[in-house]
């Protein structure tokens, strides 16, 4: 599916917000089991009925160990998470830049949007996609990028898209074709190497467009509001606040609370995990933090 067909898709699916949740991925080259979707029935019924048709996707949170194991945590209401039994992936040694994606942009039977798999880059710079089936190789050259993230539907179509930052600080935009494959890249702009953390997975501000947050080297967190324009997917930045250097990882898996706002997860140096709930405001996009993990989260090399 090319760019023109994505425009058609965007018109047909206006208002759909591509974000995500779980997939059970197997060892590269093997076959994955059935996707383990977040337990949306454990989120309050009121939240489900009010928000199932719009907003950020309800997703799991995943942690990746350097031994190749991936552990999943599902939202169980109010921002709390619970570990999913067993491993959600194995054999992922030497990979980096894990990011969840809803590659078809279609809701599940209960009305929620979920990620149907994840992308990751192997040590040879090959982009792989894992879902319910064999891991797919989508091409090489991805070692040119030091950050790869799917922030949701950033290009105006239905499927999730992919952002990639190269070594010189240029940010590039790859559009999802609806089957996990990606279009040619589009140049967004320079200067993105000013940021040590970049995160996003759906709408934070309440306007129905996928947003992005980025932390600079001084610890200030900035908001980039989504536009839905694939050639210029974000508007100018606005300042959220300072002090974010207390965290060694910032990640947004999507919605963890059932309110259809994309939330932000932060890990501190002691290994505790904190949740900042998205509240639909451009000026103050997150509420006060809540601890959702007491310790041990530094055992994961990556969170996504």
Features:
304 residues; Tachylectin-2, Chain A; 4-stranded antiparallel sheet
Give a topology summary.
Layout: H1 3-12, H2 45-51, E1 61-64, E2 70-77, E3 80-83, E4 96-101, E5 117-121, E6 127-130, E7 136-137, E8 145-152, E9 161-166, E10 171-176, E11 182-189, E12 195-199, E13 212-216, E14 221-226, E15 234-241, E16 247-254, E17 263-268, E18 273-276, E19 290-293, E20 302-303
Antiparallel strand pairs: 1-2, 1-20, 2-3, 4-5, 5-6, 6-7, 8-9, 9-10, 10-11, 12-13, 13-14, 14-15, 16-17, 17-18, 18-19
What global shape is seen? globular
Helix content: under 10%
- CATH homology superfamily name: Tachylectin 2
Can you write the helix and strand succession as a string? Answer: HHEEEEEEEEEEEEEEEEEEEE
CATH class: Mainly Beta
Roughly what is the average pLDDT, rounded to an integer? 85
Share of residues in strands: 35-45%
Total number of distinct structural domains: 1
Q: How large is the count of helical segments?
A: 2
| Structure class | mainly beta
Radius of gyration: 17 Å
Q: How many strands, which pairing sense, and closed or not: the largest β-sheet?
A: 4 strands, antiparallel
- Widest beta sheet: strand line-up: 3-2-1-20
Which runs of at least 5 residues are low in confidence (pLDDT < 50)?
1-53
């Amino acid at each position: 599916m090319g760019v023109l067909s994505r425009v058609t898709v965007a018109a047909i699916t206006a208002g759909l917000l591509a974000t995500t949740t779980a997939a059970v991925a197997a060892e590269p080259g093997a076959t994955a089991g059935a996707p383990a979707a977040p337990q949306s029935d454990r989120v309050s019924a009121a939240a489900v009925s009010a928000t199932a048709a719009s907003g950020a996707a309800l997703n799991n949170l995943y942690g990746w160990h350097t031994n190749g194991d991936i552990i999943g945590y599902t939202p169980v209401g109010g921002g709390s998470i619970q570990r999913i039994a067993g491993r959600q992936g194995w054999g992922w040694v030497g990979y980096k830049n894990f990011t969840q994606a809803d590659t078809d942009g279609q809701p599940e039977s209960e009305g929620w949007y979920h990620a149907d798999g994840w992308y990751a880059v192997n040590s040879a710079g090959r982009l792989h996609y894992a879902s319910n089936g064999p891991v797919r190789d989508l091409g090489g050259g991805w070692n040119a990028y030091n950050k790869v993230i799917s922030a949701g539907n950033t290009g105006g179509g239905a499927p999730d898209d992919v952002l990639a930052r190269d070594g010189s600080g240029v940010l590039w935009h790859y559009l999802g074709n609806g089957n996990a494959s990606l279009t040619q890249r589009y140049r967004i702009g320079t200067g993105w190497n000013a940021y040590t953390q970049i995160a996003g997975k759906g709408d934070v501000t309440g306007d129905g467009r996928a947003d992005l947050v980025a932390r600079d080297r001084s610890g200030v967190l900035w908001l980039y509001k989504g536009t839905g324009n694939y050639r210029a997917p974000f508007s100018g930045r606005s300042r959220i606040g300072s002090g974010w250097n207390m965290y060694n990882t910032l990640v947004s898996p999507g919605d963890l609370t059932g309110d259809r706002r994309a939330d932000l997860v932060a890990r501190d140096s002691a290994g505790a995990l904190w949740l900042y709930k998205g509240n639909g405001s451009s000026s103050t996009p997150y509420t006060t933090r809540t601890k959702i993990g007491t310790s041990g989260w530094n055992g994961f090399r990556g969170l996504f």
